[in-house]
Amino acid sequence: MTQKKAAYRRVLLKLSGEALIGEQEYGIHMPTLQTIAQRVGEAKALGCELAIVIGGGNIFRGLKGSAAGMDRGTADYMGMLATMMNGMAVQDALEKAGLETRLMTAIEMKAVAEPYIRRRAERHMEKGRVVIFAGGTGNPYFTTDTAAALRAAEIHADVVMKGTKVDGIYDKDPTVHDDAKRYSRLTYRECIKQNLRVMDQTAISLCEDNNLPILVFNMTDTANIVRAIAGEDIGTLVSTS
Question: Distance between CA 45 and CA 40 in Å, rounded?
């Protein structure tokens, strides 16, 4: 039996906070988190360098807070703090699964995480550690999708992988429309022009500017993390052509 190998040298995996909810309505479902940690360990064993950007929507989402009447900047900072909580939980689960990790934050919190420094993050990855980026970009008005694109560009990742609730990018919402068509490949321009909302347009443009492919796949089946990093034909790939 042929041993799988990573198709990429360095991967940035974007996990939404919702990926940690599992069967709950909010918060962190520990069995789901433990399964994700196990799959990340299996993916890491394929031989890639791996970083993770984690969202905070399972705890607090800045846009919803803003829509409810809260100042947008305040709401976004609260969302960044939610990503820190998720980052700490992911770090704990990964270490219990036997992986070396480093949690890095764009918002200084010396007691729980290292400040984000690009070169230090790259050294950690070169030493085989899984680096978790929390705190978004450290600025309000930017999503964790943009944080993922930014960090991926900074650490010279080969691909941004985004785990979602569906198996790729569709021309319309597949949970609402039975006739929704899934794309296997798209260009950045097509995503932006058709407003497909796989990532926000700032994130897509940043990936386009840095020729950074985006692979969107279904995280409901956590085994897809391994399949994606092994280069199997799953999800939707967004690139220059």
Answer: 9
The pLDDT value recorded for residue 1 is: 43
Q: Helix crossing, 144-154 with 118-126: angle to 10°? A: 70
Contacts for 93 with CB less than 8 Å, ≥ 6 apart = 33, 34, 36, 37
CA dist., res. 224 & res. 198, Å (int): 18
| SS3 assignment, position 202 | helix
Give the integer Cα–Cα distance in Å for 36 and 100: 15
The model's pTM? 0.93
Q: Is the distance from CB of 132 to CB of 92 less than 8 angstroms?
A: no
**Helix, strand or coil, per DSSP, at residue 88:** helix
Q: Alpha-carbon distance 217 to 237, whole Å? A: 9
The number of helices, as runs of H, and strands, as runs of E, in the chain is: 8, 11
What is the dotted CATH code of the domain comprising 10-239? 3.40.1160.10
In the chain, which residues have pLDDT < 50? 1
Q: How far apart are CA 162 and CA 61, in angstroms?
A: 18
Whole-number pLDDT of residue 3: 66
CA dist., res. 126 & res. 124, Å (int): 5
